[in-house]
Amino acid sequence: MDAGLKRELEAKVYAGERLTREDGIALYECDDLVWLGRLAHHRRTERNGDRVMFNVNRHLNLTNVCSASCAYCSFQRKPGEKDAYTMRVDEAVRKAKEMEDEQLTELHIVNGLHPTLPWRYYPKVLRELKAALPNVKLKAFTATEVQWFEKISGLSADEILDELMDAGLESLTGGGAEIFDWEVRQHIVDHDCHWEDWSRIHRLAHSKGMRTPATMLYGHIEEPRHRVDHVLRLRELQDETGGFVVFIPLRYQHDFVDSADGKIRNRLQARTTMASPAESLKTFAVSRLLFDNVPHVKCFWVMHGLSVAQLSLNFGVDDLDGSVVEYKITHDADAYGTPSTMHREDLLDLIWDAGFRPVERDTRYDVVREYDPAPSLAERRAEPQRVWA
Ligand code: SF4
């Protein structure tokens, strides 16, 4: 990037001006990672100061049986496959109850598009989970799952969301977004929930008072212009509804064959690499700069390892996805030795060691507890970091 364009973009960011599609593409073409980080950190700090939010949550996947076979997915199994599973309602409740002692505030529930489970199963699970764990917020189902419920129930998304909310649903999850541009999407997604339905369902959720996350799967066959397009669609919807609370760039993962049957399910693997840490930091930074109307940008540390997660806090990120005891969708495709469990104390140390102030939040991003700011650099240097990976 030439110095003139750099000065122009810098002036826009410092003046708080909205960046364009061309600006976004130019930022992705720039290899000056430190400069990009500085701009993104400026935007992040303006909005969120030195705070890094986290929540204490657990992931629950009720079934890995799925009618679709998305090209990047290592999680889905077909009925009858060796490690296919579906939890009965009482099993899901028992599993959730086992987590009760860990002071969790949120259960994050996403699932395969099960071909034969009836629609009634889903509100029933939520209702019973809520009864068993009344203080835990239920963040559940992607827009893709909601569209699937429309098909299997004959109900409208409006009726479905009403029933799920009545059963205890606090928020949808942000998944199913992947990359919206059809040029890419047609090659990676194997169901028929695309931008039109995904945005329709989130718009509806926002109109009912929900605050939802939005994700983007990057680092596979898409190009930076597709990432820019993805963010700009979300930014426009956010101008309309204001209902997105966080943007989560998700790093596409290869399948490292840790499943019980040893099969590689990821069909993109032969022709893709995974995004490098530098590319991930760039994606966080450009996302923060472009998506100027979303309050938070999240790093899901399970996909990056803790070191990159810490660095991301200087590249636009102000939210770390919390403690995770079980997260099957990524861990079916992970060979990095990333820990699968982090507890509140680990996250606090991680955030302090990176030089930020931890803030525990709930599902709606309301503050649960604000902690002390980071100790001075001298104090941090005097004691080796306790949590590392
Ligand atoms: S990404 Fe979701 S919908 Fe696609 S195959 Fe995997 S579980 Fe099924």
From TrEMBL:
Cofactor binding, per record: Binds 1 [4Fe-4S] cluster. The cluster is coordinated with 3 cysteines and an exchangeable S-adenosyl-L-methionine.
Pfam families for the chain: CofH_C, Radical_SAM
Annotated catalysed reactions: 3-[(1-carboxyvinyl)-oxy]benzoate + S-adenosyl-L-methionine + H2O = 6-amino-6-deoxyfutalosine + hydrogencarbonate + L-methionine + H(+)
Gene3D superfamilies, per the entry: Aldolase class I
GO biological process: menaquinone biosynthetic process
Functional description taken from the UniProt entry: Radical SAM enzyme that catalyzes the addition of the adenosyl radical to the double bond of 3-[(1-carboxyvinyl)oxy]benzoate, leading to aminodeoxyfutalosine (AFL), a key intermediate in the formation of menaquinone (MK, vitamin K2) from chorismate.
Cofactor(s) the protein needs: [4Fe-4S] cluster
Family of this protein: Belongs to the radical SAM superfamily. MqnE family.
PROSITE patterns attached to this UniProt entry: RADICAL_SAM (PS51918)
Classification lineage: Bacteria, Bacillati, Actinomycetota, Actinomycetes, Micromonosporales
Keywords: 4Fe-4S, Iron, Iron-sulfur, Menaquinone biosynthesis, Metal-binding, S-adenosyl-L-methionine, Transferase
InterPro entries referenced in this protein's UniProt entry, alphabetically: Aldolase_TIM, CofH/MnqC-like_C, F420, FO_synthase_su2, MqnE, rSAM, rSAM_sf
Radical SAM core domain sequence ranges: 52-279
Protein name according to UniProt: Aminodeoxyfutalosine synthase
A GO molecular-function annotation: aminodeoxyfutalosine synthase activity
